[in-house]
């Protein structure tokens, strides 16, 4: 089979296409024939880390395809079943950027009818991250679904990004009023297509005033991509007992928090990363995301606010570069076309 690997860390040029033996699933494992692999910022960040965790790595946390073989003891998955992958390369040497990948059965999720492989490969990291952020609020729901966030106002900072888009779609499906910030009219159009009720261009005027005009009593939850830049705004627009869920460090690696204005609101900061997420929370996210997909509430494509950018398997380096340079939308690798 063909796979993309790297044996050292560094720029995208370390990635190369190789031929490898077909891997066999062991007990509790599933082999998936990959149709699409998703590319996320975590992939290039892992590739450029100071040290490689394995002698050889196949990148890719997300993907979609068809079950090709099942190992002993696997239930609920069958050969020929369409599936999506979550955390395919976490704690393992080989992820989704290959024609076949062997995964623990709990990282292989049935793909709902009507969902194509583009959507399946776009879920994983963005949607599960968004789910955790949306369910981290004080007194809020631990699961998402119709009505779960009714009466709550969610602010999604950076709504044109992959996680931001997923947060908009999942929050709207769950009944929230969704406000989002963007940096341009083009991104505003994408956030609106994703389902945001109110879109604020933070480069025009005072975003705090625009947000509070929508939510005079303050927002209940902030899904935050750039805390170092946005914390002042977040403090200004949150209500008492609100939660700021932080999933990235865009715009700076250090967050300074003014104590008096923060604890006077009984604010809660919830940091979100999937790699150390409690297993029960990950399972709940996977179930809810699949339900949202089945309901047609999570979509991809320009008409859903997520332009798709397709690359061939031997163009994975270019795909990594596109994500690292901040391309708007979802980057997918077409591993197979069937």
The N- to C-terminal Cα distance equals 16 Å
CA radius of gyration: 20 Å
Binned strand content: 15-25%
Helix content: 25-40%
Reported for the largest beta sheet, the result is: 7 strands, mixed
Give the overall pLDDT as a whole number.
97
Question: How many domains is the backbone divided into?
Answer: 2
Low-confidence stretches: none
CATH class of the largest domain: Alpha Beta
Order of helices and strands: EEEHEEEEHHEHEHEHEHEHEHEHE
CATH architecture of the largest domain: Alpha-Beta Complex
Class of secondary structure makeup: alpha/beta
Assembly of the depicted chains: single chain
EC number: 1.6.5.5
GO molecular function: quinone reductase (NADPH) activity
Protein name: NADPH2:quinone reductase
Organism: Nocardioides ginsengisegetis
Question: What are the SSEs and their pairings?
Answer:
Layout lengths: L1 E4 L10 E4 L9 E11 L1 H7 L14 E9 L11 E4 L14 E5 L3 E3 L6 H4 L3 H11 L18 E5 L4 H12 L3 E6 L2 H10 L3 E4 L5 H8 L4 E6 L2 H11 E9 L12 H5 L4 E4 L7 H16 L13 E5 L3 H9 L5 E5 L4
Parallel strand pairs: 8-9, 8-11, 9-10, 11-12, 12-13, 14-15
Antiparallel strand pairs: 1-2, 3-4, 3-6, 3-15, 4-5, 5-7
Description:
It comes from Nocardioides ginsengisegetis. GO terms for molecular function: quinone reductase (NADPH) activity. Pfam families: ADH_N, ADH_zinc_N. This protein has 338 residues and is α/β, with parallel strands linked by helices. It has 2 domains: 2-122 and 306-334, Quinone Oxidoreductase, Chain A, domain 1 (Alpha-Beta Complex), CATH 3.90.180.10; 126-275, Rossmann fold (3-Layer(aba) Sandwich). 28% of the residues lie in helices and 25% in strands. The chain has 10 helices and 15 strands. It has helices at 41-47, 117-120, 124-134, 162-173, 185-194, 207-214, 227-237, 259-263, 279-294, 316-324, and strands spanning 2-5, 16-19, 29-39, 62-70, 82-85, 100-104, 108-110, 153-157, 177-182, 198-201, 219-224, 238-246, 268-271, 308-312, 330-334. Strands 3, 4, 5, 6, 7, 14 and 15 form a 7-stranded mixed beta sheet that branches. Strands 10-9-8-11-12-13 form a 6-stranded parallel beta sheet, with helices on both faces. Strand 11, helix 7 (227-237) and strand 12 (238-246) form a beta-alpha-beta unit. Helix 6 (207-214) crosses helix 7. The longest helix is centred in the C-terminal third of the chain and has 16 residues, at 279-294. It is globular and about 60 Å long. The relative contact order is 0.16. The model has no long low-confidence stretch (mean pLDDT 97).
């Amino acid at each position: 089979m063909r796979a993309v690997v790297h044996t050292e860390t560094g720029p995208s040029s370390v990635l190369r296409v190789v031929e490898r033996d077909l891997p066999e699933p062991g007990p509790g494992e599933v082999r998936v024939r990959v149709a699409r692999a998703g590319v996320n910022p975590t992939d290039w960040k892992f590739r450029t880390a100071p040290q490689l965790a394995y002698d050889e790595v196949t990148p890719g946390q997300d993907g979609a395809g068809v079950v090709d073989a099942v190992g002993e003891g696997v239930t609920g998955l069958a050969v020929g079943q369409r599936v999506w992958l979550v955390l395919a390369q976490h704690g393992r040497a080989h992820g989704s950027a290959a024609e076949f990948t062997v995964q623990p059965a709990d990282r292989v999720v049935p793909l709902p009818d009507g969902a194509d492989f583009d959507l399946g490969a776009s879920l994983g990291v963005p949607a599960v991250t968004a789910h955790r952020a949306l369910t981290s609020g004080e007194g809020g729901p631990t699961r998402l679904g119709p009505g779960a966030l009714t009466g709550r106002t969610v602010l999604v900072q950076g709504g044109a990004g992959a996680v931001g888009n997923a947060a908009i779609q999942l929050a709207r499906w769950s009944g929230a009023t969704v406000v989002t910030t963007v940096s341009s009219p083009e991104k505003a159009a994408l956030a609106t297509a994703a389902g945001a009720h109110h879109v604020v261009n933070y480069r025009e005027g005072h975003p705090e005033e625009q947000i509070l005009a929508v939510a005079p009593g303050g927002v209940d939850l902030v899904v935050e991509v750039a805390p170092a830049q946005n914390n002042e705004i977040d403090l200004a627009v949150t209500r008492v007992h609100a939660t700021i869920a932080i999933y990235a460090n865009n715009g700076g690696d250090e967050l300074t928090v003014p104590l008096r204005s923060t604890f006077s609101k009984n604010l809660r900061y919830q940091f979100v990363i999937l790699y150390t997420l409690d297993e029960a929370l990950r399972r709940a996210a996977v179930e809810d995301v699949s339900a949202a997909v089945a309901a047609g509430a999570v979509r991809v494509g320009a008409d859903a606010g997520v332009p798709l950018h397709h690359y061939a398997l031997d163009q994975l380096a270019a795909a990594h570069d596109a994500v690292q340079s901040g391309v708007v939308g979802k980057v997918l690798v077409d591993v197979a076309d069937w």
